[in-house]
Amino acid sequence: MNASKTVIMGITGGIAAYKSADLVSRLYKVGTRVHVIMTPNAMQFIAPLTFRTLSGNPVLIDSFQEDSRWRVQHIGLAEEADLMVISPATANIIAKMAHGLADDLLSTVVLATRAPILVVPSMNTNMYNNPIVQDNLGRLRDRGFHILEPAEGELACGVTGKGRLPEVDEIYSKITELLFPRRDYEGKVVLITSGPTQEAMDPVRYLTNRSTGKMGLALAQEVINRGGDVILITGPTHLSPPAGACVVPVTSAREMYDEVLRHYPQCDIVIGAAAVADYRPKAYSGQKVKKKEGDLVIELARNPDILAELGKKKGNHILVGFAAETEDLLVNAQAKMDKKNLDVLIANDVTQEGAGFGSDTNIVTIMARDSEPLPLPQMLKGQLAAVILDKIAGLF
Ligand code: C5P
């Protein structure tokens, strides 16, 4: 880090406020300009003088404080920031940020800045797990805030669970990552298929699967963060795509196939994260199929295998697939990789808890040509996206 970067450290009223002293000190020592904003509640836990001394700058508390450094304090501050960090972030500031309140200096600067914002929640487990807090964190995530998950352990209130502030080392390395983002995908166009497909049998019914598109969206976001361009060809999903992605919505596997082939010549890398339906109802009925006595038999036709088709005309493309398996994970995954002519395959035992469809986390083994399978622990899909992209970048 160096003096060219400015970080605004927001401190809110949690017992972990004292840990931010170490964080501010580390940032200051490597030459980062640090402006600390404290909420009045934070001052009940730690004195502003501590941060004044460690940051070398006056601590900002009040929206109406006299300060000759900026013409309009909250706007000047907000514009100067390369990054805002809120650590610890209480349920209160999380709620205020999620709903756009601006009733003190910190929440006002949050609204005024265009810098990335890192939120480090820390609170009692029951508060953290409260669906209202989780909804608010979800809103922030959807809006592009970076959230560092709290750690599990014994909390100051005596209970054990999730809610502890992560280690200062972890917060510091996240700050470094956000201040000096990797741009290793600059100039690369990555086509990502994502979500489920829907295979219509009549105007009101279709076959589909449990994919939500979370993994594909996490990959798309990470490519954008690292400077790449994304063509996101996505089946129906309730989740919003990341800003900056070129989104091509599709419904059925055949539509996805057509769009992928259309965009294939313009891309360098294809990641097949979609759960493409292997079969569709053979005959589509233009009218709603009427209920009759007895059973109904629906005949299914095979859908095209998109990745396998791309594998036949690979050229200089890097092809990456996912394999959701329920048995003989590595053997089946290896066979799939060979059959589809893939460079990297993310093998996923979907019978494990915390893996696969709809979950926020995944447990996978990354396989690649000429290297040993790399089994990974349970990870958030966002973290996994970063590891997958590291692996792909190694092939450039
Ligand atoms: O053969 P299987 O469906 O297990 O392969 C999964 C991988 O192949 C995934 O990456 C998926 O996106 C891709 N796939 C595809 N077209 C299909 C079926 C799967 O591109 N019709």
Strand order of the largest sheet: 12-11-8-13-16-17-19-20
Distance between the termini: 27 Å
Q: Name the shape in a single word.
A: elongated
- Let me know the average pLDDT: 93
The largest β sheet comes out as: 8 strands, mixed
Q: How many helices does DSSP assign?
A: 13
The proportion of residues forming helix, as a percent range, comes to 25-40%
How many beta-strand segments? Answer: 21
By helix and strand content, what is the structural category? alpha/beta
CATH class of the largest domain: Alpha Beta
Rounded Rg: 24 Å
Per DSSP, what share of the residues sits in E-state strands of 2 or more residues? 15-25%
Spans of 5+ residues with little confidence (pLDDT < 50)?
none
Number of domains: 2
Query: What is the level-2 CATH architecture name of the largest domain?
Result: 3-Layer(aba) Sandwich
Q: Tell me which ligands are bound.
A: cytidine-5'-monophosphate
Spell out the CATH superfamily of the largest domain.
CoaB-like
Return the CATH topology of the largest domain: Rossmann fold
